[in-house]
Structure formats: structure tokens, C-alpha cells
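Recap slide: Rieske 2Fe-2S domain-containing protein, sequence and predicted structure.
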Amino acid sequence: MHELPVEAYTSQEWLDMEMKYIFSKTWQFAGFVEDVAEPGDYISVQAGLNNIFIVKGRDHRLRAFHNMCRHRGTQLLRAVGKAKKAISCPYHDWTYDLEGKLISIPKREEEFPQLKGELHKCGLNLHEASVDIFKGMLFVHPDKDAPSIMEFFGEVEPYLGPHIVEDLVEYSENDNEPFYSREIKANWKIVVENYIDHYHLAHLHEGTLNMYDHARAEFGWAGPHYWFYEPLVPDYAKDVKNAAPYPLIDSVPEDKIGAYVPWLFPNIGITEGESSWNSFHVIPLAPDRTLVNIRTKVMNVSEREFTRQYTKSSMHKLWSHYGNKGKYEGDPETDPMASGDFMAEDVYACEQQQKSLYSPKFQVGAQAQRGEYAISKFQSVIKEWIEKYKDQ
């Protein structure tokens, strides 16, 4: 009934294998194209065992490098930054240009007599990685000669939503928190399995996601990636222009409106809806801890128009029936199952499952043939990927 042993969700040994054989061998989400807009702008991301940064060069070309100085391996750049003219190691001031070439070493002749001539020819330039763009998102791969990103995501691309991500703008309800970030006390695979579990949508989220027609959901696998779509329920669809919380995304035709919720292997989900588009980035921290970062994009409209739609939606009669009702009655401030927040419900469920894994009584019972088949498939992909590279 279950493709993976309990240890796959609780042991450091399993997480180490996943870092080495999955996260270090796949394209990893780094951010959006606008995060690195001008020459000298950069972002860094952990890709399995490798910390990698993307920088825009003076020629406006994006390049990716392993984030370590060639002298002693010190990290060169921290998370994100703007307008760098060069990349200098904070430890000994070895300096590289935006194309990754070594251009300066303090006291070179005195301290490093072996490094004579042109520095960029001495074989100590930065190690190159790969960077590419998919649906407005930046991805990195630790290998310099990685397979193209379309070779990796090409099979699932036709099943994604028609949203033109590059035309949307990032949105946050809190200016001090540019995106949602939450640490979950559960293994990263439990978070993924919750994301792709169709069976729980009509049950755990009966009061928070009932504006979508779960009975008419379509889903499947394309290579190692999962795709998912379900339409709006008729009442919501009939007046979605007034009921949607944000202005409708105009790149989505009326007959294509619904929830597109694919999972791009191994750790990036996308929720593409009628009025918002979200990246759902799952980052393993420990065998029983996972960081989830969610970034939201909406239509590029005036603040007045945005506020008008939000106000109109909040007063719409449909919301007395659809959404925002907790699973149980209770204090929404302290009980996630009474919060009326589907993310709080999911976090609670994931953390309870993680706790149960340590019980000697834990076992998986009968699984829903349709609603939970994606979980078994995902677990099989994890096994296949580890075995593929472990034998090399």
C-alpha cells in the first residue's frame, strides 16, 4: 500500500540521499525573471548539495555559478542583491567579474608567485552552473551542461494553465513580508503528498475550497511531473467576475477558468487560478522540518481597481456559502481547524501525519484508487530517481 518505508520520512540518511540524488540532479526553482532585472542583480538558491547564484551580466545575459570562492570555498554572495559591479569574496577579497572570471587577488606577486600572467587564464574562474527560464520562473541546475529545461518540463507544459506569468505582478498583503513563508514540522514529501492528494479536497477543505468542483477534477502524470485541473462550481462560475477576490486574469479564456495545480518534480508546485497565480516552493530543512515559500502574482491593474474588486468580492452573497468556514467550530486564532484558512488546515494535517510516523502502530490502510493514486506514483518516482543515480 505504500512505496516508501517510514524511514524515508524520518531519517537523515534518506534526506542525504535525496539531496545527493534528486535535488542535486534536477532543475531547482530560484525566483522570477524580475528578481534579476538589471546588470549586477543577483539571487542565490540551494540546489541539493550546491549553493548557486544567478547574476545578470553587463551584456544583460543571465549566468549561474556555484556560490564559492575558488581560493578557500567561502560563500561569495548572500541571498539577494542589486547593482554589483564585481563579485568579491569577503574572506580574502579575491574578485571575479560578472562573467565569473577571476580578475583580482590582493598582493598577487608577493603572496602567490605561482599565479602569474592573466588571472582569468589560471584555471580559477568560478565553477559554472546552468540557468534557464520556464513560465516566467528562473531555474538553476548544478551541472554546466545540464539537459535543457524544456527537455525536463516539456511533457507537463501542455497541461499547465494558459496564464501568461510574465504579464502579472507580485502581490503581498503585508509590505513587511513580501511573500508567505512557513516552517512545517513534517518531512518535505508529506507536504508534497498533501499537495497532490485529490481525495482530501472535498473533506479537509469542505468549508474552505468548496468553490471548486472536486468531482470533475482531471489529473495525471507527465514524466515525473503531476498535473491537475478542476473547474469552478456552477454558482461561482456564473458570477465569477464579481465574486473573484481579485481582478480576473485576462490571459485565461472564460471557458478555461478553473484551478490548475501542477507539481513540477521534485519540489515546486504552481497554483494557477481565476484571479491569482502562485508558486509553492518546498524546501527540506531536516527529516521532519520543511520550509514552504509561496509567492503570489495578480493582474497588473491600478490599486483602485484592485481594491474595488476585493471589496465587491468580500460583500458577495456567494461567500456566505463558499469558502472561509472552518472544519470545526472553535477559536480561529488558536485552532487551525476552525480558522477558515485552507493553508492552516493543510499544515495541521501534515504535522499530525509526521507525528504518527513515530508510533509503532503506524501503518497505511486502504488507499483511494483514484483520489490517492498520485501519492503512490510520487513515491515510486522518488525511488526510481534515487536508484537511477545511486547506481552510477
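The first helix runs from residue 12 to 23.
The CA atoms of residues 86 and 97 lie 5 Å apart.
(End of recap.)
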